[in-house]
Amino acid sequence: MPHITLAEGVPGILGPMLFRPETAKPLNQLAEVLLRGPNSLSPAERELIATYVSAQNDCFFCQTIHGAVAAHHLQGNEALVAETKLAPEKAAISPKLKALLAIAGKVQKGGKHVQPADIDRARQEGATDLEIHDTVLIAAAFCMYNRYVDGLATWAPQDQGLYRQQAARLATEGYVGSTEKVAAQAG
Amino acid sequence: MAHIPLKDGLPGIRALFDFRPETAAPLCELADVLLHQPSSLTAAERELIATYVSSLNDCFYCQHAHGSIAAYHLNGDENTVIQVKRDFAAAAISEKLKALLAIAGKVQKGGKQVTAEDVEKARQLGATDFEIHDTVLIAAAFCMYNRYVDGLGTWAPKDLETYKPRAAAVAQGGYNRIPSDIRSHVRATQA
What we know:
The complex is a heterodimer. By secondary structure, chain A is mainly alpha-helical. Chain A has a single domain (15-173), classed as AhpD-like (Up-down Bundle), CATH 1.20.1290. Chain A has 10 helices and no strands. In chain A, helix 3 runs parallel beside helix 6 (95-109), helix 3 packs across helix 8 and helix 4 crosses helix 5 (78-86). Chain A is globular and about 50 Å long. The relative contact order of chain A is 0.20. Chain B has one domain (12-190): AhpD-like, CATH 1.20.1290.10. Helices cover 69% and strands 0% of the residues of chain B. In chain B, helix 4 crosses helix 5 and helix 6 packs across helix 8 (129-151). The relative contact order of chain B is 0.19.
């Protein structure tokens, strides 16, 4: 049961977002810029970073929904998402993304864990300053979203089909306004 | 040295706002709603939660930037800020704020650390759902801001006096003025 009174049947972060629309707005805008805005990293790559950090933080809702969005962008390749969560260095992803995931994993432990050698490795694999910046901020932002979702003990559905459905909607329509759409659906 | 090239002379997160204005806008808006806009928690209480979490995350820039804002709201009482960071149970703050700081400390370790008992205790001391929600989100947000600032190796001034003028400006004007403020600062240093 959630720690505060939230609308019933509304999954994960959407419960607290409906509870407090004033903070939902910048939270959704941040996700939109980081995960869907114009970028040299593909939406799939950025969603994989979000999914990996959420898995490290053991946040069921975030890793499942962003994993489903990543898989949507990867033509339904859920196996690749699972491999990336489990062992990114062995997954069938680019060496650049592996280096960025290594940075994201350090950020998850704490900002000071990121070392010049981690940045050098990413640069040698072709990562730009903006890509390094966005990787750090995506990882940091999911250390927030994950704590928000679990710190209020929100409810998460177990049915993977629901996440696939919602992921298709997020991948095509985006994060801004998503809270209101789900609220209308649940209502 | 920062891990990516940032403008000289801009400390901490302000250099990152300058580097990426697209993400600066929602990051500033979030801080403004959580810390500055109307709430049943005072600005001082909310800045103390931000400062406490930043000190647990060992983020020098954030704990001093927000510690200075908290002190400004407390009429310059820096001792209370230091006491909250060191041992909030012994600080001259309300029992309700102590219960909220305990929740914030759990969030810093991880969302699942927050127990029903932690929340119940805060509620018995008068905390509302809104205040519990905002405490969790302030703590979570500073787990982001702190990692952002340190994960990119930003520069932070060691002289704590230098945090005070900006603390006064933010305490009065809020966080949403920061992006335009950066632009004028950048123009001034380039001139």
